[in-house]
Amino acid sequence: MKFHPDTISVQSIRSYGPGWVQVGDDRLIHSVVISSSGARFDWNCTRFEDLSCAHFEQLAELKTELVIFGSGLKLRFPSPKLTRALIDQQIGLETMDTQAACRTYNVLAGEGRQVAVALLMEV
């Protein structure tokens, strides 16, 4: 049997560590949103405590089937009050630490799913 490496035809996270991710040749040290549709933009939040409804409204505008929220070095869940825009549009939300969010995003995006990952990089 011959094995072939998996190739991902969408934007993926090449590597990650505490406080950074690498997408393509870009090493990112700030909070960022990446989607399987090709969107990538800064997510202007540097602390979990500063998350607002506007942050999740921005994610709802992507119209994905699922948003993966990487909450930093430890697992923290945003209030349902904050995520109301996703709930109203029936967009799923999964919360995990940022490193697990990176791995999960790559798997789902590689399967062709309409998914976005919002990664909180706290400073």
Automatic annotation (TrEMBL):
InterPro entries to which the protein is assigned, alphabetical: MTH938-like_sf, NDUFAF3/AAMDC
Domain of life: Bacteria
SUPFAM superfamilies: MTH938-like
Name assigned to this protein: Xcc1710-like domain-containing protein
